Amino acid sequence: MPKLLRLSGVDDDNWRFVGTDDADELPTGAVLVPVQKWLEHREQWRTRGNIGIWLDCDQDLDGIAPDIPCFKVIAIKFVDFADGRGFSLASLLRERFGFVGELRATGQILREQLFYLKRCGFDSFQLPHEDNLAAAHASLNEFTVTYQDLSGGQCTELTTTAP
Amino acid sequence: MYIYNQQDKTLVAERVAQFREQTRRYLAGELSEEAFRPLRLQNGLYIQRLAPMLRISVPYGMLASRQLRKLAHITRVYDKGYAHFTTRQNIQLNWPQLEQVPDLLAELAEVDMHCIQTSGNCVRNITSDEYAGISADELEDPRPWCEIIRQWSTLHPEFAFLPRKFKIAVTGSTTDRAATQVHDIGLQLVKNSAGNIGFQVLVGGGLGRTPMLGVVIREFLEPQHILTYLQAILRIYNRYGRRDNKYKARIKILVKAWSPEVFAQRVEEEWAFVRDGPNTLTHADIERVKQAFTVPVYASSNTDADMGLLHTIAEQHPAFARWLQRNVRAHQQPGYHSVTLSLKPTGVPPGDATDVQLEAIAALADDYSFGEVRVTHHQNVVLGDVRTSDLFALWRRAKDHGFATPNIGTLTDMICCPGGDFCSLANAKSIPIAEALQRRFDDLDYLYDLGDLSLNISGCMNACGHHHVGNIGILGVDKKGAEFYQIQLGGNAGNDAALGAVLGPSFSAELVPDIVAQILEIYVARRLEDENFIETFQRIGMAPFKELIYAKAA
What we know:
The structure holds two protein chains of two kinds.
Chain A: E1 3-6, E2 9-12, E3 16-17, E4 31-34, H1 35-45, E5 51-56, E6 73-78, H2 85-95, E7 102-107, H3 114-119, E8 124-125, H4 133-136, E9 145-146, E10 159-160
Parallel strand pairs in A: 3-4, 4-5, 5-6, 6-7, 7-8
Antiparallel strand pairs in A: 1-2, 1-8, 9-10
Chain B: H1 6-27, H2 33-41, E1 45-47, E2 52-56, E3 62-64, H3 65-78, E4 82-85, E5 91-93, H4 101-110, E6 127-128, H5 143-153, E7 168-171, E8 185-191, E9 197-203, E10 215-221, H6 226-240, H7 251-258, H8 260-274, H9 283-291, H10 303-316, H11 318-327, E11 328-330, E12 336-341, E13 352-354, H12 355-368, E14 372-375, E15 381-387, H13 391-400, E16 415-416, H14 431-440, H15 444-450, E17 455-458, E18 472-479, E19 482-489, E20 501-502, E21 507-508, H16 512-526, H17 533-540, H18 543-553
Parallel strand pairs in B: 6-7, 7-8, 16-17, 17-18
Antiparallel strand pairs in B: 1-2, 2-5, 3-14, 4-5, 4-13, 8-9, 9-10, 11-12, 12-15, 14-15, 18-19, 19-20, 19-21
């Protein structure tokens, strides 16, 4: 079973990614479908359960806004770790679109980005370059203080983040 | 200046620990060069021509004497005994070793300093007016606003990987000394018709290879909304700024592509969602930051007696009189003046100071200016609050340390980047050009006759030396492997910001002083009454300069 990192620690990854070129017949079990396929098949898939979507950093959220409660997982795929658009997408999904499911960072992300990713609302992380996920877990908590509190505090107050 | 609280200190200490681990992983081969690059850049560390270069953050230019002493120590232990003051009010070291940088950062943290976001594609050091809080033409001290923005932008999780670097300047005076029109975002404190203070917001200014002046996208923003409005701008830029070509990735390109009107509209739409959200400042937030700043306890004085004595001494000491004229400035507070220590003596790279000089500046600050100094974007150092009655004593001590060159605002007070001697981006050297010009124009009477005149030198089109906004701008270019210099005229960095225009084909290094001399001759011959260089240029235009110089050269 593949592993991923959650805020709570290392965990099994039960979700299968469906590629943009894969068949439209979905495999059994929990699947993450590309947002383009979702838009084509949403009427059919809406009641499936165990479904989520994945999107690239440059994709827009407007088309899927009404569907967001259907997704257990939304994964944002970083083709380049320095593509900051994924950070804004995550913030928007949490703040504006009210997504409360699992928000997953996947693709070329680095352990060194975990703290920022977490603070933008990601809560699961597939780290392609890490053999030791347990060691990487420490990077989620590199800072005990922050200057912004995106969840509702006052920004200039240094608020202590949850451990 | 702003005094760190325990949480500020904790954040900086944790940043040091984070970078220590990142450096360890890089050196152990666990982190690739490509992955380490943005991490080290966001800690101010470049890999340069000869050695790494480390840029130390000096938020809006404010430094305390204890910080200067620590910097002196750091230059001795980790570097070659000197530091360079930059045009973004920061400090650069040219010779640190990568392995030692975590220890260096730990030493900086001891005096509440860091290198966070001094490079990389993120929000950089917030810059401001070097006369903030002391200038007579000030509406409001911009520094608490700089600090609020500094805190908000520090390790902001959403904006750590922008398309490109991002520079914000804030000014609180009617005279713009912070070059707000050439920043990604320029914020000017203004008063509206109801008498309330708020921000005029400019966006899309910048120098570099596509120089542009910023455009106003909001005439008046109530100050409590500053962070949500910045968030809206940055989010739009982060999502829609170009990432396919680093030369087209600055926000100015997006503003131009969309048009300022459309850009402003998109920002307003985004702002509608975040306005009044969690980043809205309360009165208590603003007050808390304002109260974290020390306030100088000014002594009362007999201003008339002080000024009388000053004039008497000045009559006896012409050199002191010259220094008063150029390096000393009026103050909000009766009985006080501000003093600029010139880091532009002939023969020293502009903006460089030795470890001994850094300690001397610290001592002068302690003895005469409440232990604080301000780094200027002209690469000098200002003692902000000097008693008028102390000016003569200060001048004598400044002279002993080489800070009393009475050239502030004149041709030889030039802005100059490190250039090809240090920088791996440079096309040409800039320091030797500055030195040749300083040697050529060393007659103070002539300099004073020329009056206020800015001459800015950049070693490449990245424009760290702000050549576009110099009255005379000099740009190093590469011509088939040889170093040449293009000259621009008519740039200006103040309220009437303007980008210089190219005079014509470039010149070899040896010719530059002669060409500048000819430009000045034309100005002197054509000026009317009290016109300064830029006014004459604006009146007569480029043609007379072009004709004479290229006729002579031909």
